[in-house]
Amino acid sequence: MANARGSQGDRIDVNRADPDELTVIEGIDVERAQLIVEYRDAHGAFESWDDFENVPGIGPVLREKAERAASIGAGGLDPGESPEEREVDELIAIAELDREAAAAYEVAAAGVPSQEARDRLMQFRGDHLRHVVGIGVLLHARGVSLPEEPGRAETSAMADLAAAAVEMGTKAALLAMIGNERLTNGTYEAALLVVTDEDARAVLRRNLADEQRHLKWLQDNRDRGFEITLQPDAAP
């Protein structure tokens, strides 16, 4: 099969990718990748992400991950869109994802009883907000302003999931954050296949190192029994 990436190092094209290439998308295992190919062979090329979601085993969550890491079409660029414009779109999308991740960490931190866990989650929140600022600087240098979007709990799907998870305890909250970090890690990795500007790539690589650090801590501590510590004003 032809290479499923464009000549500019573009995203994987779900209309051309083979099963091995499709497994690069977060959440797409070998079985789901094979179902994607079989559905595509039976029904023809995907014309939209709605079509993609019709594949057995692909729901809204996997569709969202695929939209961030892959493309539909032969080249991955919209008609008339230049590589520079695509890079701007990619940077905006990453900044918006970082905003959502920050909102989710804020919700998770507020819901866990351990002070140590709260402090760590708020530290990760700060990293995501710092990423937004850094990407905003890159966009400003290109004459583009980052769209105004608060990324607060009431506007973030990630935060909604975090709110549901914290009701089930600290471990569930950490597992929800692991899912978020896998998404952000995958999105940064995909962006580095698209973005060619060296200054932007340096920022993305630094941010990805943070994301990898977040994910490692969450995975290392998800089964840990955190000691519950009370805030001073909660003491009897």
Number of structural domains: 2
CATH-defined topology of the largest domain: Ferritin
Q: What is the CATH class name of the largest domain?
A: Mainly Alpha
- Oligomer state equals single chain
How are the strands of the biggest sheet laid out side by side?
1-2
Number of helices: 9
Give the overall shape. Answer: globular
The overall strand count is 2
Brief description of this entry?
The chain is an all-alpha fold and 236 residues long.
Describe what you observe in this structure.
The radius of gyration is 19 Å and the shape is globular. The longest helix has 29 residues, at 83-111. The chain is built from nine helices and two strands. The chain has a two-stranded parallel sheet. The protein folds into two domains: 12-71, AF1531-like domain (DNA polymerase, domain 1); 83-221, Ferritin (Up-down Bundle). Helix 5 (83-111) packs antiparallel against helix 6 (115-141), helix 6 (115-141) runs antiparallel to helix 9 (198-221) and helix 8 packs antiparallel against helix 9. It has helices spanning 19-22, 30-43, 49-53, 60-69, 83-111, 115-141, 157-166, 170-194, 198-221; strands at residues 12-13, 70-71. Mean pLDDT is 82; it is low at 74-79 and 229-236. With 236 residues, it is an all-alpha fold.
